[in-house]
């Protein structure tokens, strides 16, 4: 019988991780399976690498953060992704959210204004053999018109209102999930559904995200 303590702790850690997700409201089976399949560890470097499995946001390069797993799970769950969907993510960051989306969608396009983050995320995607993600350095507030329309759009930075260009690139019947708010202190996660009659909004929960900024990062 194998009593390797590292193997036991890895299994226990994964169990605790999934339990924490469920306790915060992430109950969709396919989302939980995707989050079990994608290890958060490779997306966090340096001082905070040892805290990869805690349900908390952590700092990454370029003054950005990697969202806490429960928020990633809730946003992913709210998108209601199907295997045929083409998804646009605004704010690649570490690449963790895009990697989870890639397990659920047909194709994922992810944009970040920081070239360094995009390059580092691409490296992890390649290492994990995630071939259905295209990572692009660009101003995400304009979306990606050349690949529009999208079935699903997720924004991982807060704007005062859902950006018009992104709403225009959302397919009829599509869903967009994003944080909105005028300050760091007051932000809400909302889900927007695009119907034949217009837009329907659902408010989900209070959150805190970095702001959605126009232009490219200084490192580009």
Structural features, described:
With 220 residues, this protein is of the alpha/beta class. The protein has one domain: Rossmann fold (3-Layer(aba) Sandwich). Helices cover 29% and strands 25% of the residues. The strands form two sheets. The protein has a seven-stranded mixed β-sheet. It is globular, with a radius of gyration of 17 Å. 40% of the residues are buried.
Please specify the SSE layout and strand pairing:
Layout: H1 5-23, H2 29-37, E1 58-59, E2 65-66, H3 69-79, E3 86-90, H4 96-102, E4 107-112, H5 115-127, E5 133-137, E6 150-155, H6 164-168, E7 170-180, E8 188-195, E9 198-206
Short account of what is shown:
This protein is an alpha/beta fold. The protein is 29% helix and 25% strand. The chain has a single domain, classed as Vaccinia Virus protein VP39 (Rossmann fold, 3-Layer(aba) Sandwich).
State the main characteristics:
seven-stranded mixed beta sheet; 29% helix; Rossmann fold; two-stranded antiparallel ribbon; 220 residues
Anisotropy-based shape: globular
Stretches with pLDDT under 50, minimum 5 residues: none
Number of strands: 9
Count of helix runs: 6
Q: Characterize the main sheet.
A: 7 strands, mixed
pLDDT averaged residue by residue: 90
CATH architecture tag: 3-Layer(aba) Sandwich
Which H/E pattern describes the elements?
HHEEHEHEHEEHEEE
Please list the strands of the largest sheet in the order they lie side by side.
5-4-3-6-7-8-9
Derived from helix and strand composition plus strand pairing, the structural class reads: alpha/beta
According to CATH, what is the topology? Rossmann fold
Could you give the distance between the termini? 53 Å
The overall number of domains is 1
What is the percentage of strand-forming residues?
15-25%
Q: Using only CA atoms, what is the Rg? A: 17 Å
